[in-house]
Design goal:
The protein is mainly β. Helices cover about 10% and strands about 40% of the residues. It has 4 helices and 12 strands, in the order E-E-E-H-E-H-E-H-E-E-E-H-E-E-E-E. It is globular, with a radius of gyration of 23 Å.
């Protein structure tokens, strides 16, 4: 498990940068933080150690009473997003409730693991979702060119097994992109450029933390 603290951010979109040797890199722009420590989880009380971070201000009129009590207990303004990052006890001791964590947590050249929600594609069949070959378009086939084919067996166990690849909602799932390198860092604008693509649509929430595999 990754025990380093991370940050929340917003995917801005994609662009390109040029290196000193003239090579071109496709990069994703991410607005990172600042985030506020809203709660600290402890081993004694919760059974694990974590920091709960809040990101993006939220109007008090849009916060219900239990949520408002949670923010008032921490003496912080309401936040739109709350996410937990499991950390080591050593790292948790460095932060206090109400403390702000900003882009200074990262450095240019760092490698990150970035988690986001992939773009939803709606209802889709097995050919688009899983790359099935599909059926024949001749030899008596009638309107079954992109069907999934046989689903189960005859008698035993006589049902469709759980996890069978079938048509259904495509994407809109949590995806973690590993080994994303920071190629530009603009501390004044809370902005980083990471090499490659990041899951999610524009302005979607992403979670960033130091790479588990270095």
């Amino acid at each position: 498990m990754n025990t380093a603290c991370g940050l929340l951010g917003k995917k801005i979109g994609m662009t390109q940068v040029f290196e000193a040797d003239g090579s071109r890199l496709s990069v994703t722009a991410i607005e990172v933080g600042p985030c506020t420590v809203v709660q600290k989880r402890t081993m004694e009380k919760d059974g694990y150690v974590a920091l709960q971070l809040g990101y993006v201000e939220k109007k008090e009129s849009r916060v219900n009473r239990p949520e408002m009590g949670h923010f008032k207990k921490a003496d912080v303004t309401p936040k739109r997003y709350l996410r937990e990052f499991r950390v080591s006890q050593e790292i948790a001791d460095k932060y206090e409730v109400g403390q702000e964590i900003n882009i200074d947590l990262f450095r240019n050249g760092d490698v990150l693991d970035i988690k986001g929600t992939s773009k939803g594609k709606g209802f889709a069949g097995v050919v688009k979702t899983y790359g099935f070959r599909g059926g024949s378009s001749t030899h008596g086939v009638h309107e079954a060119y992109r069907h999934g084919g046989a689903l189960g067996m005859c008698m035993t166990p006589g049902r469709v097994l759980k996890g069978k690849k079938m048509a259904g909602h495509h994407s809109s799932k949590t995806v973690t992109q590993q080994g994303m390198k920071i190629v530009r860092l603009f501390a004044g604008d809370n902005l980083i450029f990471v090499k490659g693509t990041v899951p999610g649509s524009r302005n979607s929430l992403v979670q960033l933390r130091p790479a588990l595999k270095g």
